[in-house]
Amino acid sequence: MATDAASDVLTRDFPGFFKIYKDGRVERYWNTDFTPAGLDSETGVQSKDVVICPEAGVKARIFLPKIEGVKKLPLLVHYHGGGFCIGSPFATPFKVFLSHIVTQANVIAISVDYRLAPEHLLPAAYNDSWAALQWVAKHAGRQGPEPWINEHADLQRVVLAGESAGANLAHYVAVQAGANELSSLKIANILVIHPYFGTKDPDRFYQYMCPTSSGADDDPKLNPGADPNLKKMKCDGILVCVAEKDKLKSRGVSYYETMSRSSNGSYKVDFYETKGEDHCFHFFNPKSENIGPLMKKIVDFVNQDE
């Protein structure tokens, strides 16, 4: 019986991320292990999944710690990593990571399941990420569609957070909030972990996912210093975390330097480097003794306004 030869012809291969075949089929190197929402018996954290953009099918997962009293809690808005093309807030590693932060920092978290490339080319992930913060802003005055946010979240203490590509998205959303004068919430802090802002040379991987981009430093999504709206960004502080052996470390250092110059003292920029570790080691090397200090730094940063 004859088979369609096109289904086996490889047209693109980005090792570690995805392959594309001649018939349009996408095969990812890393498959997400989905874990259901619900009560975590170990931490007492509850989670639920919500639809935030029905038109695009964008969802998010909300993590709620044990609630004691009537005090409102900071809201951490999280964008997951994965090179804009893999990963999900419904995956086990992100559940573990966010449950830890929610428990230790006593905050609410919402992690956005933005659309992935290459099926949804960039800037889809950027648009979804910005739409998610606008959805959060609808809860000002307890008027939003999600009761957990209405009842428990302090929208004057919002933390934007992400790792790798998610750190890129968190930064982008922060700039959009300033440029568009989103006044119904306040971005208190921005947590940038092992950020992905392309590479020194034109980034062909990014350019493939975003055909409108040069993949180089003239693209403000890859080089925040080239963004004319950068100075419109408002927050109280930024924490930039890098890893010594990460090939993206230099871009993270450059980001730290750019934001330090741009702040003009209007917000504090802090820097934290983990020695001897590689990119997002807290996911890929779960037994590392360096995870504890990194998580403490993150929790202390999220809690610094308490």
TrEMBL record:
Ranges for domain Alpha/beta hydrolase fold-3: 76-282
Protein's UniProt name: Alpha/beta hydrolase fold-3 domain-containing protein
Pfam families noted in UniProt: Abhydrolase_3
Top-rank lineage group of the source organism: Eukaryota
Annotated GO MF terms: hydrolase activity
SUPFAM superfamilies: alpha/beta-Hydrolases
Family: Belongs to the 'GDXG' lipolytic enzyme family.
